[in-house]
Every structure is written in C-alpha cells, then in structure tokens.
Amino acid sequence: MARAVTTNRKITMTVIAWSIGFLIFFPILWTVLTSFKSEAEAIASPPSFVFFDWTIENYGIVMERSNYFRFFMNSVVISVGSTLIGLIIAVPAAWSMAFVPGKGTKNILMWMLSTKMLPPVGVLIPIYLIFKNVGLLDTRTGLVIVLTLINLPIIIWMLYTYFKEIPVDILEAARMDGASLRNEIIYVLTPMAVPGIASTMLLNIILAWNEAFWTLNLTAANAAPLTAFIASYSSPEGLFYAKLSAASTMAIAPILIMGWFSQKQLVRGLTFGAVK
Amino acid sequence: MGRITLDKVAKRFGEVEVIPPLDLTIEEGEFVVFVGPSGCGKSTLLRLIAGLEDVSGGQIRIDGKDATETPPAKRGLAMVFQSYALYPHMSVRKNIAFPLKMAGMPEDEQKRRIDNAAKVLNLTDYIDRRPGQLSGGQRQRVAIGRAIVREPAAFLFDEPLSNLDAALRVGMRLEITELHARLKTTMIYVTHDQVEAMTMADKIVVLRAGHIEQVGSPLELYRTPRNLFVAGFIGSPKMNLIEGSEASKHGCKTIGIRPEHISVSATEGMWKGRVGVSEHLGSDTFFYVHDTGLADDMTVRVPGEVELKAGDDVYLTPDMEKMHRFDDSGLRLS
Amino acid sequence: MSTQHSRSAARLMISPSVILLLAWMIIPLSLTLYFSFLRYNLLMPGANPFVGFENYTYFLTDPAFFSALTNTLVLVGGVLIITIVGGVLLALLLDQPMWGQGIVRILVIAPFFVMPTVSALVWKNMFMNPVNGLFAYMAKFLGLQPFDFLAHAPLASIILIVSWQWLPFATLILLTAMQSLDSERMEAAEMDGAGPLARFFYMVVPHLSRAITVVILIQTIFLLSVFAEILVTTNGGPGTSSTNLTYLVYAQSLLNFDVGGGSAGGVVAIILANIVAIFLMRMIGKNLDA
C-alpha cells in the first residue's frame, strides 16, 4: 500500500524481523564461526562468540585427512551432470507441451508429476539390486542416472511454466518472418527462454546437491558426494566440533550462495507453478 | 504480386466447424478488411491465409500458386500481430532486420531497407532501443516496420490497433492507410471495429459465425446492406430496426432507418415520441427517443446542436428514400 | 500454431522424457511388488519361494511397524504445524515495511539450502549434545540440568531439526502468496469498513488458503520420506522411538537384508504417499490450463 508508515512502527518491525532472522540463521552462523576455532575453543565453556583466536587449520586438516576434494568433485559431477542431462531431455519435452499443446498434454504433465510423488523407499530395493547387478552401485554414473530421473519431473514442470509465459504470437511472428523451426529456436525461443532455463538449472543443482536418500544408500567409498561425507562425521568424529564445522561450511557454502540467487525460482519450482 | 484466392476454404477444430467452406478473392493492391463481432472467425481466416493454422479443406492460392500446404515462412506474407509480437531481446533495428536476416539478404541491402523503413515510420530516434522501452504507438510502428522491409506479397494485420488508446488509434489508422496508398501492396486487415473498416477499406468482408455475410466497398455496405446483420453492424450509431405494423405498411417484416436519416421536429412529423437521454457531441447531437410505439428506443442523429430536453415531446420523420426493407428471413428487399 | 507438422515434431520431442519416466516408474514398482510376495533374503541365497501375503502380515503385525507409522504421522504433523504457523507469522512480519527486508529474507531462507546431513549433525552435536552443546551451556547458565534431547526426546528433536529446514520453504511460499494480494482489494476492504483483524481473516487468510494447502501437500510428500536426519542423529532409536516408515523399510532391507519384507514395507509407503499425492495432484491440476 502506497502510504506513509510511521517511523516508530517501522523501527519496531525492523528490530523484530532482524532478531528473528538472526535466530533462524544462527545455527549456520555458529557453524561458520566454530569452523575457525581450535577444537579446545570450540567446546570451551562459556562459548566465545567472536573473541577467539581465528584459525583456518581445520579446513586444512579436513581437506588433507579425508580426501575432501574427491567428495566435493563427486557432488559437483553428480549435481551438475544430472541437471545438464535432465535439461537436455526436458527442454524439448517442455517446449512441445508449452507451444504445441494437444489433448493429452495436461494428462502427461500430471502423470510426470505423479512419478515425483513416488516415495523413494518404495523403489529402493529394486534399484539397489539392479545397480548391484549391473555394476552401477557406488558409481557417479549410477547416481547421475537416479538423480536425473527423480528430478526430471521438476525440471520439465519448471521449464513448462517458463515457456508458457513466452507469448505464442512471438513465435508465430518469427515464422511469418521466414524463420525455419531451427532458426526460430536459435534466434527467438532460446534467448527468451534462457533466463527460465538458467533458474531451472540453478534450482535443480541445489536439489541434487542436497539429495540425501539415494546418495546415502547407493554409494560407499568411490562415488560418495558431500552428503555422505558429512554423514560419516556422525560419530565419533562429530565430537570434533571445529572440524565438523569446517567440513559442513565447505559443503554448504557454494549451495547457500546459489540458493540466495534462486529464491524466486524456488517457489515456482517446488510448487509446480501452483504458487508464483 | 499479391492476389489471394480462397477456394472452398474451411476450418474445423475437432467437431466444431469454425469456418464453413468459403470462397473469397482478394485482388492485387486491395485493402481488404475482415470485420465482424468477436468469435466470427475473422482472425482464424487470417491465420489460415498466413499458414499459422492448417485448413481443414479447400485451397488457398497466392498469385495463382497453390499455397495450401506451404509453411508460413514460405508464403511471402508479412503479419502485424495484435500484441505486436516484437522480439523483446532484440533492439528495434534487430527486430526489423530479423526477416531480412532470415532471408539471407546482404548486410548493406538490409541496412538500406531498415534505414528507409525507420525514416518512413519515424523510428530513427529509437532504433537502438529495446521494445520494452517503447510506448504502445512506437511498438506498433516497429511491428509495421518489420513487416514492410520484406516487401511482402501482402500484409496481414490482426487487430493491430486494439491495444492503443483512442487518440493514437485514429493517428495510426491514418498512417496505415497512407502506407497502403504509398506501397500499393495488398493488405488484409482484421478488426471488430466497424469504424476502422469503413475508414480504411477498399473492400469490406463482413463475417458472422464463419460465414461471409457481405462483401463490398464501405459505401455499398452502408447504402445497401444485404441483410439485417450487416445493416445492424455497419454504421454508427446503429440503424433503427422496426418491426410490426409500421413495417407491414411498407410490405415487409422489418424496416431499417439510420439515425442520420431521421429529421426531428418539436411540432410535427410522422412518429411521436418522448426525448430520453441526449448526447451532445458538438458537431452532432444524438437523441434516444422513447415511447414511439415502434421500437424500444429510437436513435436519432441531428447535425449541430438542438435544444430538446429530456421528457420533451418530439416528432420524428424518416427519409423514405433511405429506408431499408427486409423480408422474413432478414434479407434485403430491393 | 497447431499445424500438422509441428504436432508430429512435438510428439517426437516429448517421447524421451515419457519413455524414461515410464521405465523409472514401472520397472522398480513392479519389481517391488513382485519381491513383496517372495521370501527373499540376501543372506540366504537360493530359491525365493512365493509366499503370498506373508511379508505383509509380518510387516504389518510387527510392533515396529505400528510405532513407525505413529512416528511418521507425528513427525509429519508436528513439522507441518510448526512450519505453517511459523510460516504465516513470519510471512506477515516480512511483508511489513522495514529496513533491510532483503537481508532478513536471505537470513530466513538460508536453512533450506543446508544439506540434511549437515543440519542434522550440527544440531545434534553443537546444539543438542548434553555435555558440550550450546543448549547444555544455556541450561547450566540458567542453573538447570542439561537435557539429553536425542536420548530422551528423540522424535521431538528430529521434528525440531526438520522444522528448521522447512520453515523457510513455508515462509517463502506464503510470503510470495501474500505479496500477490492485490493492494487495491485491501484498500477496497478498508473503504468498506474492515478493520485490520477483519482484513486478516476475510481477505488475507482466504487468499493464503490455497498457498497453505500447497505447502501442506508438498511438505507432506517430502516429510514422509525423511531419512538422512534420522540416520545421522538417532539411527531410529532408542529402540524404535524415532523410526519412521522410510527408515524402517531401509533397516529391514539394507540392514537386515530382508528384500521381501522391505518390499512389502515399500508398497505400504507407496500407498500412504499416494493418498496424499491424489489431493496434491488435484490442487495442481486445477491451476493448470493446458
């Protein structure tokens, strides 16, 4: 509402909102702070907030001792790989459903969505056994396949809602202007669709990066991504707070930053366009 | 170049027949307006000509060649869309250049044509802006620019002025008419606004429910509407249609008299009524006359200003020469 | 734009997705269904005889199943209540004029992007640990006895952790919905004499109801499958006090190697999820004008 707000009210709201925001964010902040402490300071009583000897030794130790880089690369390969493959499969499908809708389009979309509703635990055993038999267990390829498939419906849906927003008129105009289907896609559709595709990609990488059912159950030493790496801190290493914190910070930092950029798309992607 | 012939062209969406088989010839250089109420199939007809929809039957010939199966890109037609359909990610220059680029035209020829179009359409100052930074009228001109640079066999306009405000609409109407006078290219123009049809067309095609009701020049339609629908649709304010005993006197089911063909007097005349609302436009005055015993409300148009108040008695006299007569099935009696 | 040519191209472009998803759905599902009728244990190789509904009888009469079902419902219900109530309040708050709104929003949203294993371990060790956890310090500071959250209230602790992860999601969606509320409509209501409370209940709440339903349904789908949080904190214990259905099936099949029993559990989980899915699909379908 375009209307003057009393300064007092604004101050009150600001203070309340900032306090609550800080409270919700605190566990993350605390993790980041602890990652710069020595182990002794991490469990010191009373805990110190910022006045401690800042050190980055934990990061060094975590990287050295646990072959951190390999887990990190597994996470990158799995999340980026499954997203790219998913996009390659999904873009044509979403394109055709958005621009050449037929009688069955709505049903196909709903059916695709329904595959996302399948609880992973319902298909865990067959997938596990199949993977074991064909040698995909604990491989990056295997995880890329699974994550591509479980996120494909979300990718198709997000792209579909973005493509739907491109006016059909413009594509028809291109056709009247003499563009072949190929040129229409290259010069008109793609530039207009790129922002939507980019957001879809971003959100999907985040979802794949944080996926923690399949990555925990289908990997061991070789293909384990960061989710599984962190899970290995479950005990007793988890009692080394500073190192746990350093490992955690490294695992969440890249995705946290990407996530902040994709706030708006998050809503659209995870509600399948039901809330925009 | 630019003679378009429709031969028994029909369109069905599933079971629904939107356009029953229809014949129409658009002569080279003609400005043809398809007009009709919304849902009459005028846009669909245009899209069939454009090739954006498949015909369900019949043949479309452009300059004598069968184009029924030709994809839109190959028909040599240019279209201006209602939404303008400009490419939002391209500058004005690139928008206009797009069809030329698609045709693989040499750069210098492209530039020559674009600069020329920009000058004609007053776009030179905006040539490097994006469509999002332009006003409605400017966008409209870019869309037209994009169409004219190709020097197409015919232009197709799909309600191009309906998103502009009233003042701009009149201006653009004039510009398009002037453009046609200069280019002498065939233009097919779709609108629901009979004023646009009357002011711009060489030939008007009145459509209803996919049927052609009448084809003719604006004045032909005005003077001799073929049936009640055309009579009611063409002309503003609408023709007064009177049924009953008054019509029987003239030996027909319905008589029609246009508001401007009725004279008004406070003292004597053929029909007596009472003044309801009056609209004073300055140049004209419209009266809505009640209680004439003829039709619910008679509309009368009088040039200049006339002092009559609501509730005053008034006498109306039609110009018998300009009365239209229609039979039981709504067709014109000569 | 629907010409014959483009329609056949469209069918071609959609087929890879359809085929892949069809395979992904049908193959494992039919296998799960098939295994659920077999006596099939990976530790006992040999014939896997058909046993009819034995696995189901065994799984459904196992006291662990009943406890897992209850835990699943409590977990889903608890998290939903916390996130919806918290989400509405937070969305209302964030919709107010203030300084640094964007930053507060970023702070509130952050937990959603933390991977489940990290958030579970951070909460477990650095906050809930009865000796060195931050909560223990606070208790000691206040002169109270530290409380061993995960030992004495394991399910409640997991609900807390999962709620922290999902509160941002609910907040973000409800905030988006709230911001789409037409301000002219609110002003019209104000002109019609509606006070702030009346406006909240007659304008805001009905406007949000759709978004709230979407949040409930989508979160339920994900919450039925909570797994990593349990695995790294309590391993479903003590006993089965924090075992949900997903974890129980996992334990049955990959820890006890009982493929048949696990599959029967999987089928039960699918049926449960489908009940929710039907409602969700209706909601989304209504909004789809394809």
UniProtKB/TrEMBL annotation, chain A:
Membrane topology annotation: Multi-pass membrane protein
Example of a GO biological process term: transmembrane transport
Signal peptide positions (record): none
ABC transmembrane type-1 domain residues: 72-262
Compartments, record wording: Cell membrane
UniProt xrefs under InterPro entries: BP-dep_ABC_trans_perm, MetI-like, MetI-like_sf
GO CC aspect terms: plasma membrane
Pfam family, any one: BPD_transp_1
Transmembrane segments: 12-33, 71-96, 108-131, 143-163, 184-207, 213-233, 240-261
Keywords on record: Cell membrane, Membrane, Transmembrane, Transmembrane helix, Transport
PANTHER family: INNER MEMBRANE ABC TRANSPORTER PERMEASE PROTEIN YCJP, MALTOSE TRANSPORT SYSTEM PERMEASE-RELATED
Family: Belongs to the binding-protein-dependent transport system permease family.
Protein name: Sorbitol ABC transporter membrane protein /mannitol ABC transporter membrane protein
Native source species: Puniceibacterium sediminis
From TrEMBL, chain B:
InterPro entries on file: AAA+_ATPase (IPR003593), ABC_transporter-like_ATP-bd (IPR003439), ABC_transporter-like_CS (IPR017871), ABC_transpr_MalK-like (IPR015855), ABC_transpr_MalK/UgpC-like (IPR047641), Mo/tungstate-bd_C_term_dom (IPR008995), NA-bd_OB-fold (IPR012340), P-loop_NTPase (IPR027417)
Gene Ontology terms: cellular component: ATP-binding cassette (ABC) transporter complex, substrate-binding subunit-containing; maltose transport complex
Pfam families, sorted: ABC_tran (PF00005), TOBE_2 (PF08402)
UniProt cross-references to SUPFAM superfamilies, sorted A to Z: MOP-like, P-loop containing nucleoside triphosphate hydrolases
Domain of life: Bacteria
Keyword terms: ATP-binding, Nucleotide-binding, Transport
GO molecular function: ABC-type maltose transporter activity; ATP binding; ATP hydrolysis activity
CDD domains hit by this protein: ABC_MalK_N
Record-annotated ABC transporter domain positions: 4-234
Protein family membership: Belongs to the ABC transporter superfamily.
Name of this chain's protein: Sorbitol ABC transporter ATP-binding protein /mannitol ABC transporter ATP-binding protein
Lineage: Bacteria, Pseudomonadati, Pseudomonadota, Alphaproteobacteria, Rhodobacterales
From TrEMBL, chain C:
Highest taxon in the source lineage: Bacteria
Family annotation (Gene3D superfamilies): MetI-like (1.10.3720.10)
Membrane topology listed for this record: Multi-pass membrane protein
InterPro entries according to UniProt: MetI-like (IPR000515), MetI-like_sf (IPR035906)
Residues spanning the signal sequence: none
Keyword Transport assigned: yes
PROSITE patterns assigned to the protein according to its UniProt record, in alphabetical order: ABC_TM1
Gene Ontology process terms (BP): transmembrane transport
UniProt domain ABC transmembrane type-1: residue ranges: 69-280
Residues annotated as transmembrane: 12-35, 73-94, 106-123, 155-177, 211-232, 264-284
Compartment list: Cell membrane
Record keywords, A-Z: Cell membrane, Membrane, Transmembrane, Transmembrane helix, Transport
GO cellular component, one term: plasma membrane
Keyword check for Coiled coil: no
Family membership: Belongs to the binding-protein-dependent transport system permease family.
Name of the protein this chain belongs to: Sorbitol ABC transporter membrane protein /mannitol ABC transporter membrane protein
